[in-house]
Design goal:
By secondary structure, the chain is of the alpha/beta class. It is built from ten helices and 15 strands. Strand 4, helix 4 and strand 5 form a beta-alpha-beta unit.
Length: about 325
C-alpha cells in the first residue's frame, strides 16, 4: 500500500509539474467583433503576473474571464496590477486597440515589440491627433506610462515583474509589411505565439522557415509544447484574397515544414492553439471542421474561447 501511495504521489507531482503555462484568451477573433479581438494573457500556474500577447480586446475580455473564474479580482485590479506588460505583434487595430483605448486607466508597464511596430505606435497611435502619447518616446507631450522594449531578432530579453523571457522573430504579413512572433520562456519551457502571418510561398518570404529553424530543436526536446498560430480563412478563400493570412491547408503546409526539421514523432501531440479566425458567417466552425478532418501530422488542435483558461505544458 505504501508503495502504491508513493507511486500515486510521484504521478501527481509529474502532472503538476507538467503544467507550465496558463493562457487566458481575452479575445480570439480576427476582426468585426470589437469586444473579442486578439489578446491572450500568459501566466504561470497559480500566479497572477501576466504578459498580454497582443491587445485587441482588453477590458471586455477581463470581465469575461472574471465571470468564468479564470481571473480573480476586479477589472481594474487585473488591468492595473496583474497585467505586467504587452507584446504587440504588429500595428493593426485588431491587435492593439484594447491597449490604446484602456491606456488612460492603465498603470506603468512595458511594451515589447520589434522596431517597425514601435515606430507605428509612435507615429500613428500615441500622438495628439489620434489619442495622446502614453509612452516614453515619441511625440511630445510624453506621459511616460509605457516603456518601449525593442525586440531584436532572435535575442532574448526579460519581461520585468513576470517569470518570463521573450525572444522576437519577424513575420511577413503581406510582404514587405512586418508582423512578429514571440517565443516566451519560463525556466526551460517555451510557448510560441505568432501574430498575423502569411505562408512563405505566398509571401515570397522565408520568415516562417527561419522561425521553424529556431523552434525545431525545442520541439524535439519537448521544451516547446504549444504554438499559438492564426488561421483566418477556410480553404475556399482565394490566395489573392488572403491578405497575409493562413487557411487550414496552409497551416498544414507550414507545420509539415516544421515536421521536416523535427521528425513526425516530435510533432505528434503538439498543442496548436488556433487564433484569429475571422468571425464572418460560419467561418470559425468551417475552419475548425477543416482542421480536424485533415490532420495528417496528428497535432492537438485547441480552439480558444474568450475568457476560458487553457492550462498547457
Amino acid at each position: 500500500m505504501k508503495k502504491t501511495a508513493l507511486s500515486l504521489l510521484v504521478l501527481l507531482n509529474m502532472v503538476c509539474q507538467a503544467q507550465n503555462f496558463d493562457v487566458i484568451p481575452l479575445g480570439i477573433y480576427g476582426g468585426e467583433q470589437e469586444d473579442n479581438l486578439s489578446a491572450y494573457l500568459v501566466g504561470a500556474p497559480k500566479d497572477n503576473a501576466f504578459l498580454c500577447l497582443d491587445a485587441g480586446t482588453v477590458n471586455a475580455g477581463i470581465r469575461k474571464a472574471i465571470e468564468m473564474k479564470s481571473l480573480e479580482g476586479t477589472t481594474e485590479t487585473v488591468l492595473k496590477d496583474q497585467i505586467k506588460g504587452y507584446f504587440v505583434s504588429h500595428g493593426h487595430l485588431d491587435h492593439l486597440s484594447g491597449l490604446i483605448i484602456n491606456s488612460p486607466a492603465d498603470s506603468k508597464k512595458d511594451i515589447f515589440a520589434i522596431a517597425p511596430v514601435i515606430q507605428i505606435l509612435q507615429n500613428h497611435y500615441f500622438i495628439t491627433d489620434t489619442w495622446i502619447n502614453f509612452a516614453d518616446q515619441g511625440q511630445k507631450p510624453i506621459l511616460g506610462k509605457y516603456h518601449y522594449n525593442e525586440l531584436q531578432e532572435g535575442s532574448e530579453i526579460p519581461a520585468p515583474k513576470t517569470p518570463f523571457f521573450i525572444t522576437g522573430y519577424e513575420l511577413s504579413h503581406v510582404n514587405p509589411y512586418k508582423s512578429s512572433a514571440a517565443l516566451v520562456r519560463r525556466d526551460d519551457h517555451y510557448l510560441l505565439y505568432l501574430g498575423d502571418t502569411g505562408a512563405d510561398h505566398i509571401e515570397k518570404s522565408d520568415r516562417l522557415d527561419q522561425l521553424w529553424n529556431a523552434a525545431a530543436p525545442l520541439v524535439k526536446k519537448k521544451q516547446l509544447n504549444t504554438i499559438l498560430i492564426e488561421v483566418s480563412f477556410p480553404n475556399s478563400q482565394p490566395e489573392h484574397l488572403l491578405f497575409g493570412h493562413l487557411t487550414p491547408n496552409l497551416l498544414t503546409e507550414e507545420l509539415s515544414k516544421l515536421k521536416e526539421k523535427t521528425g513526425q514523432s516530435s510533432l505528434e501531440g503538439l498543442n496548436i492553439v488556433v487564433t484569429h479566425r475571422k468571425p464572418t458567417g460560419d467561418n470559425p466552425e468551417l475552419i475548425k471542421k477543416e482542421l480536424l478532418e485533415n490532420n495528417p501530422l496528428k497535432v492537438r488542435y485547441i480552439f480558444p474561447e474568450q475568457g476560458k483558461k487553457i492550462s498547457l505544458p
